[in-house]
Amino acid sequence: MAESGLLWVGFTVLLGGFFVFLGILKNVNAWFYESKLGEKRFNLPPGDLGWPLIGNMWTFLRAFKSDNPDSFFTNYFQRYSRKPGVYKGFMFGNPCIMVTAPEPAKQVLMDDENFGTGWPKSTVELMGKKSFIGISDEEHKRLRKLTQAPVNGHEALSVYIKFIEETAVSSLEKWSGMGEIEFLTEIRRFTFRIIMHIFLGTENDQVIAALEKEYTVLNHGVRAMAIDIPGFAYHRALKARKNLVAVFQSAVNERRQRKAAGISVPGKRKDMMDALLEVKDEKGRELSDEEVIDVLLMYLNAGHESSGHITMWATIFLQKHPEVFKKAKAEQEEVIKNRPPGQKGLTLKELRNLDYISKVVDETLRIINISLMVFREARKDLNLGGYLVPKGWKVLVWFRTVNLDPEIYPNPMQFNPSRWDNYIPKPGTYLPFGAGGRLCPGNDLAKLEITIFLHHFLLNYQLERLNPGSPLMYLPHTRPLDNCRARIRKVSSAAT
User: Fold this and answer.
1) 21 pLDDT tier (thresholds 50, 70, 90)
2) Which three-class secondary structure state does DSSP give residue 49?
3) Which residues does residue 97 pair with via DSSP β-bridges, in sequence order?
4) What is the mean pLDDT of the chain?
5) What digits encode the pLDDT tens for the residues 242-274?
6) pTM of this prediction?
7) Quick one: which of 128, 327, 377, 495 could link to 118 by a disulfide (CB 3.0–4.6 Å)?
């Protein structure tokens, strides 16, 4: 009996010691980072900095790899209240302030003077130190100004329409004869073909397929933990970036050599790479090879990933809601009916007058949230929602919680394009592409691609999903686990 009692005492002591150790471990991050703030630490927002090194990342990854990604912040809301929407945490290797409400989100995104870019080092390594996410505010303004017209300008968009429309028509026709397809896979190839044509002037199927494969690997590493060890997503992404840079550098070298020799290629259309190699700022300075390559790499990644996923989801939502499909199709038929004799193909004016399909796209962007968050960094001690944001801490603005806020959008997960009737969202309440000076530079081009595809889909086709109950994956983007196995059925031969 005495020995048994001693064993129980020993077990209790060990168990108690284990929990004490866990308690100490759980507070290491807080002690290490908050103690440096002195008395100011008492003005930090609610939350916790999680475990050493990994912080809140396991909780985040567990939530977003489950069937309930919103559980990550539901826990914060239950513990600390939903308002004012500012919490402390430790994400992607840094102490941070997480923003989930419109007002503080607007303050962070619109105040470039006090909140600089703050993307994790691993993301900058993958996207490029000379891309929009890796450069200073001064460089960003210069680079954005130089690239804005060739990407989103009225003239550029008008030029792109014909190729986008031809590609949409031929792709839908092809898919309708293929039987079962992975709709997401095919849509991503469709958007990648378009972006490759616009930026690199290539339509070579083998080149496009090889580069698209590398981009898929790259994108899976952007929000993975930065573990540069074989077998991990980040390690594979770094290799993919190296391969992509080599391809782009070869193209840049070839074009610079042709330019120096005064050689022109007969019949070659001027593409985005040509424009970037020729462009000069007001001081006559050209872009370096690294700047050209990183800008192209970033645009090509964002330009096909976001457009592809949103196009898939808009198509799914339309097919899932017959009343919305019917109304959207009627709008497309009206365009054809009112078209002047002799006109072939869409015009930019027609596309910008498609009011209802624009609401379909806006509602899809709101629900799907192609970007979960954006990263900033406090340049000095700041006040946000009544709480301290320490200098040097990362500030993560969570688009998903803003776009799905039930107080702004009743029944937020319900697909309802009519919620946009006579409704203009207040600043900070709708963030599909961010806001402020670092608003996504390719947003107009993305919406143009999506709208043109939906125009032709609605007129002539229907989507038949083979597994509509497929589980969803939320990282790096929301998608069905089966990549939307489906058939595309042709239902009309209406002239377009």
Assistant:
1) very low
2) coil
3) 88, 395
4) 87
5) 999 998 899 899 888 988 888 777 666 778 888
6) 0.89
7) 377
Alpha-carbon distance of 149 to 272, in angstroms, equals: 10
Is 493's pLDDT higher than 80? no
Topology adopted by domain 27-490: Cytochrome p450 (1.10.630)
Q: Which residue has the tokens 């989507």?
A: 463
DSSP state of 268: P
b/e for 432-441, b at 16 or more Cβ within 10 A? Answer: bbbbeebebb
Residue 60: name the closest of 78, 81, 75 by CA.
Answer: 75
Alpha-carbon span 291 to 255, nearest angstrom: 15
Contacts of 119 (CB under 8 A, 6+ apart): 127, 133, 134, 375
Which of 142, 135, 150 lies closest to 282 in space, CA to CA?
142
CA distance 149 to 442: 11
Query: What is the Cα–Cα distance from 187 to 453, expressed in whole angstroms?
Result: 10
CA distance 311 to 317: 10
Which run of H or E residues covers position 297?
helix 289-320
DSSP structure class, residue 433: S
Are 451 and 352 in contact by the 8 Å Cβ rule? The answer is no
Cα gap 483→182, rounded to integer Å: 6
- Residue 393 CA to residue 37 CA, distance in Å, equals 12
- CA 130, CA 147: separation in Å to the nearest integer? 14
Cβ–Cβ under 8 Å, residues 370 and 477: yes
Tell me what the mean pLDDT of segment 117-122 comes to. 87
- For residue 298 the two structure tokens come to 């970033």
Length of the chain: 496
By C-alpha distance, which of 121, 126, 472 is closest to 301?
Answer: 126
Q: Is 484 marked as binding a ligand?
A: no
